[in-house]
Amino acid sequence: MPKVREWSSDLRQLVIKHHSNGDSIRTIATDLYLARSTVHCIIKKWKQTGSVINRIGRGRKRLTTSRVDRIIHRKLISDRRKAALDVALDLKNDYQTSISPQTIRNRMHEIGYKGCIARKKPLLKKSNRRKRVLWAREHLSKSKDFWNSILWSDESKFNIFGSDGRQIVWRKPHESMKRECLKPTVKYGGGSIMIWGCMSANGVGNLVLVEGTMYKEQYEKIFTENVKQSAKKLKMKSFIFQQDNDPKHTAGTINDWLVNNRIDNIKWPAQSPDLNPIEHVWDELERRLKPYSPKNKIELWSIIQKEWKGIGREVTSKLVNSMQKRLQEVVKNHGGPTSY
């Protein structure tokens, strides 16, 4: 039986008990399913020290003092993007302490820190954070009916060869080049399409393919042909329209159309995609596209339309119902990024 870890104190005591009863090493090894060399070492140690407990101070001595540990913690907590290798070089140059980058990482692991990929979030200036807090406090008292009356809208890009982000696969060390463990790429990305869509707590509305770059005129055409139709499809007799602060969204012709059609437009804080539930609908759509391998933009658009229709009320209502928690998190984080 190969030794994969130290034998427990209870097992060692049991060996000594058998030995004290006059059992031979061979008998003890057979009864306890241990190697004879293991039994011999345990008995030898007991005879030499009178104990089977490990001596204090065994193993490799710690390379860093408590002072050096504090320096490591301070350097990495004050600069979260600093590499362990840079800290090791700083310690060697400034404190004549030579340790490996892995030792640096180990010291951070001891206090609960570990290296992670930074999440991507919009840049929030002080003015943005202040406005987000004010907006959140203003809408915290809004009822569920208020949020259910909003028609949420946004644009999103979809690539033929999948998401721009990382993809996790489960594999063994020698399987890195297996086809099922690779993320296919093509030169220049293989192409993508931009789409406009809207949703409410009742479900998803119209979905529109954006041809080329979306300018004010194209957005106005999409807007006038799909907003009221989507609201009717979702059985919203009266509704509030939501859009972000992109310049083409705030054009005078768009505002005039909203006024002429007696549609309220909710004022939206800048740099706040985390407050828009439709962002998570795009994520859901991205997940549903993963099993497919479209060959061109036409196939991709066809698949997107099919999967969009499959996103039901159980998804959208859950997202809209999260608005209260989103606002609470904005206030809690003083206007900073949220986990949404």
Q: Which short descriptors sum up this protein?
A:
elongated, 3 domains, Nucleotidyltransferase, domain 5, 14 helices, single chain, 340 residues, Arc Repressor Mutant, subunit A, 5-stranded mixed sheet, alpha/beta
Explained architecture:
With about 350 residues, the chain is of the alpha/beta class. It folds into three domains: about 40 residues, Arc Repressor Mutant, subunit A (Orthogonal Bundle); about 40 residues, no CATH class; about 210 residues, Nucleotidyltransferase, domain 5, CATH 3.30.420. Helix content is about 45%, strand content about 10%. The protein has a five-stranded mixed sheet with strand order 3-2-1-4-5, sandwiched between helices. The longest helix has 18 residues. The model has no long low-confidence stretch (mean pLDDT about 85).
Strand content: 5-15%
User: Spans of 5+ residues with little confidence (pLDDT < 50)?
Assistant: none
Question: How many H/I helices?
Answer: 14
CATH topology of the largest domain: Nucleotidyltransferase, domain 5
CATH class of the largest domain: Alpha Beta
> Between the first and last Cα atoms, what is the distance in angstroms?
50 Å
Global morphology? elongated
Name given to the CATH architecture of the largest domain: 2-Layer Sandwich
Overall average residue pLDDT: 87
Q: What structural class do the secondary elements suggest?
A: alpha/beta
- Overall tally of structural domains: 3
Task: Tell me about the largest β-sheet.
Answer: 5 strands, mixed
Q: Using DSSP, what is the number of strands?
A: 5
Strands in their spatial order, largest beta sheet? 3-2-1-4-5
Order of helical and strand elements: HHHHHHHHEEEHEHEHHHH
Q: For the record, what is the CATH homologous superfamily label of the largest domain?
A: Ribonuclease H-like superfamily/Ribonuclease H
What Rg is obtained from the alpha carbons, in whole angstroms? 31 Å
Helix content estimate: 40-55%
